[in-house]
């Protein structure tokens, strides 16, 4: 019995010691400080992007990955827990774009790098980021053009190709176009969106697109004609003229410089086709020339400071400025000239061309330059009204009484922006054609 009591006392003592130990561990003062460096977290349960891709049905895209340098590129980009997002075209989309298993094996790995990097986004773009949102989510890709920089009056930044994404009503939009249903697969180091198209990478300037299109002949003719006439006015007075062509003034053309990199100014254009001019009664270049003559031509004279200058504009400048420059030339006072010229304007795609999204959209931010006494240029907001019916997207100048223009071809990608073709002129309020 004595032996039994000793055993019970020993058990009781052990229980008391365990209870004290458990109680002691709950007190903050008994927790030792961490020693050594923190071990980086790694998601060992979920597969990586490459592993998920290998298990997917996108075998052609995965074959391109295997032949590319993507493994080493992503490793070099990774700092800590860096995430990426893949926009993965289905096999049918790859084949439609000219890529199959045979062509992949014959391509240079660097060419495949460009294709894959253009479809790879920095950070993890999740369904919460792009589903049901009113505006597009703008995501920079890992593809950088080494010869370009995005330039504005404020600063210059590297030229990252970008994708604008939205998932709405069961459709995924990529740069304005339907790109799939919005199927997403998370991974340890980011996620993948499966899409139904290879995303076209812009390779031409807005000017090149317009010149090659064939639908904008009258527009090009009148802009070149008025440039020529303006230069003649100045040259007759001064002996020379150094005004840049319209394609540079309105950022259609890639800006040439003496040293690399080349400065890119981006914008969104709503350009009138030849049919748009004809709908307004202008069938030929001569019709537009006569229109300018009836309204009065610019001439050389003295400006408000008593200096020689060109006085006035061509009537077609007003007629076309909303197509070319968002109407800034005529809506922003001359003393705020920095905001009147071409600057980086938003690239707006057709899937968000609604008043709900764009009614108060900032086109040009206020610019402060020079001394403290210099005024800051004003902010300039969206000048257009948008509507949509069975025929498509309609756009007109706010408060204008003219027939809205229909966007007949939207979201044509360019190095320096996006081109939309319209079937009527964007005529401002109070402007008279006849």
Automatic annotation (TrEMBL):
It comes from the Bacteria. Keywords: Signal. It holds the Pfam family Fasciclin. Residues 45-199, 203-426 form the FAS1 domain. Residues 1-27 form the signal peptide. Transmembrane segments: none annotated. It comes from Mucilaginibacter gynuensis. Coiled coil: none annotated. This is FAS1 domain-containing protein.
